């Protein structure tokens, strides 16, 4: 596998790095990295992360785990006593991870899974449009998947740690 690098007036193939690391830089992945793209990813991470932090905190500190578990049971979510605290913690900690750009891909996968569960168990039967339909959770699912696929961008702790290791 190779990536294409551009030099003024010439295009050359160079070997791509496929060393199994969870996070690779945009250039290593063969994706053009620009300051605007990195800023866009940082804005996306910060906003989506804030939404997840708010929802995770609401589940933990407003509804409480007993109330959340009862709510999950009433929706027919399997293993509600396990799923409720897991979802609340994934949303809270995963949202914080997105904001910081730390373990971004791992956090994004966890958040995407929770949103897929929310779509299937809580929102799909209500149709598409908010407040009860899939519209909002589908958007969060898409943002989480996008971040899992693209990574955090250069303006993140993941990128800073990668630079430090290199």
Describe the fold and architecture:
The protein has helices at residues 35-74, 80-100, 104-123, 135-150, 157-165; strands spanning 2-7, 10-15. 27% of the residues are buried. Strands 1-2 form a two-stranded antiparallel sheet. β1 and β2 form a beta hairpin. It has five helices and two strands; from the N terminus they run ββααααα. With 166 residues, the chain is mainly alpha-helical. The model is unreliable at 1-30 (pLDDT under 50).
User: What is the distance, rounded to the nearest whole angstrom, between the alpha carbons of the first and last residues?
Assistant: 22 Å
Structural class: mainly alpha
Roughly how many Å is the radius of gyration? 19 Å
- Write the H/E string, N to C: EEHHHHH
Q: So how many helices?
A: 5
Helix proportion range:
55-70%
List low-confidence stretches. 1-30
Name the average pLDDT: 86
Shape type: globular
Question: What's the arrangement of strands in the largest beta sheet?
Answer: 1-2
Biggest sheet features: 2 strands, antiparallel
């Amino acid at each position: 596998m190779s990536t294409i690098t551009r030099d003024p007036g010439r295009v050359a193939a160079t070997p791509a790095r496929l060393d199994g690391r969870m996070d690779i830089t945009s250039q290593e992945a063969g994706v053009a990295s620009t300051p605007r793209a990195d800023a866009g990813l940082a804005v996306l991470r910060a906003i989506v992360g804030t939404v997840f932090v708010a929802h995770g905190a609401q589940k933990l500190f407003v509804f409480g785990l007993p109330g959340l578990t009862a709510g999950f049971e009433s929706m027919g979510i399997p293993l509600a006593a396990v799923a409720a605290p897991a979802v609340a913690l994934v949303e809270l900690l995963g949202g914080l991870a997105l904001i910081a750009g730390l373990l971004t891909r791992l956090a994004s996968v966890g958040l995407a899974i929770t949103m897929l569960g929310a779509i299937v168990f809580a929102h799909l039967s209500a149709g598409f449009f908010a407040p009860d339909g899939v519209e909002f959770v589908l958007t969060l699912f898409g943002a989480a998947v996008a971040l899992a696929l693209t990574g955090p961008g250069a303006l993140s702790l993941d990128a800073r740690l990668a630079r430090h290791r290199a």
